[in-house]
Design brief:
By secondary structure, this protein is an all-alpha fold. It has a single domain, classed as 434 Repressor (Amino-terminal Domain), CATH 1.10.260. About 60% of the residues lie in helices and about 0% in strands. The chain has five helices and no strands. Helix 2 crosses helix 3 and helix 2 packs across helix 4. The two termini are about 25 Å apart. The relative contact order is 0.22. One of its GO terms (cellular component) is cytosol. This is DNA-binding helix-turn-helix protein. It holds the Pfam family HTH_3. Keywords: DNA-binding.
Length: about 80
Amino acid sequence: MTPKTFGKQLLEIRTTLGLSQTEVAEAAEVSQSYVCQLEQDKFVPSITVVLRLAKALRVPVERLLPTEPELKKRRCAS
């Protein structure tokens, strides 16, 4: 299984649901450019934003979180 970052998870879920960045951004009360930057893993969102995005996408928060191999990789790089 390929590890997925937060941004990759967000992009995959959004596109699977057929939603635009603008639609997700409006529902999550953030800007479209911020959603774009999150999908590119340029920023790490606050827990508040993660909760809003999960609600906007109608998915459990866990679906947006990085997969276990990605978390281990990041811990080792620290």
